[in-house]
Amino acid sequence: MEPDACPAVRAALAIAAIPSHPYNALQRGARAHPADERSDPLLRTLSACLLLISATLLLACGDDDDDAAATPSPTPAVTASAPAGSPTPTGSLDDYATPAATVDTAVAVTLSDDAITLDVDTVPSGTVTFSITNSGASAHTLVIVETTLAEDALPTTAAGAFDPVAGAATIVAQSPGINAGASDTARVSLATGSYVLISNNDGDYAAGLHAAFTVE
Length: 216
What we know:
single chain; alpha+beta; 5-stranded mixed sheet; 4-stranded mixed sheet; 4 helices; 9 strands; 26% helix; rod-shaped
């Protein structure tokens, strides 16, 4: 840091203004010697210049002091930070969403000797639980076929049983044989599409044991 010149300027100005100071006394003493009379105007001129320069510098110092006082100190930036130990959020808002409940639909199926009856024939995609009751006099099965064919237009063998044909009808699931008066349960995951529920024991499909079923 450079030394402050203002105190020296103020001191010079004070010296020039004090009549008893040796410098000013020297000027007065000079007048007592006639031989030096001719130098008195020069001394007065130098003294006046000194006063003028000192006053100018003093004003400049005062302006600098005012500017320094008027200039505000910079405010330190404040940076917010998370408390120690806080977890860093990651991922999007969807990652914290509650997952949708799995759809589980119940369908009651009744097998008779000449028909299949459903309490509902259209369900949402997802898990479907078939509660199967055989009310007929003979054993039957439940076969779930995915196909775009009509329920009574599936390909069959010479004996009248369903004959799976690639690309036309595909077996998705089937139950074991259910005896007369017995019940069983089949839990199957089904995608959106068209299905036909049949019994595929000998002659059952041709006898009318089929029903259309849709999954949306």
